[in-house]
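Translate sequence into structure tokens.
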Amino acid sequence: MKAIFAIFGVLVGVTWASPLLTPLKGYTIVPMTWLGINTTDGLEIAVSGTIQEIQSQVQSMNDSIVWKMSSTQQSIKPRSKKNIVCNSGGDGGADNVFVQQGIDYLKSIKNGPCGAPPGPNKCSRISCSYGAGIFLCNDTPKEIHHDCPDLATYAEDIRSNCHTEGVVTYVRGQQFDTEGFSVVVGHDQC
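Result follows.
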């Protein structure tokens, strides 16, 4: 019988074993960690990484996955996007095609929050593939959680406003929010 896991995002302050580059000077990167509950036996599991890595880890445990927000998490408060700064974040520009794939992947995660640990100056790499990193950076003293599809819209704004034209289009930038966090898109090793 396949176990069904209820997954909810909870960030845990752990150090990342693989070499992660900080997306912004002076910031520390901490992996996003999700805790899950096996609804068959009630055991708790923990998986860490980008949303792609988390989903892959959970699916390797079992194909029947239900992503679910924790009932203890606060609802998302209304907020506003602020300014975008181009040529900020990552260790250079990320290939536009792979940035779009990361955006699409984040948009596909329904009822699952992406998060970052308490700041200031803490980031979680929420998506990364083929050198295109998307980060959630927190400058508040509280842990933050937002729907992954919502955060994807920040990456879309950066993609629309901060790109270079050429044989390959590269994207690099940072968009701020009134709640004290920002989303960063740029090249990373993944």
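Note: The first strand starts at residue 5 and ends at 9.
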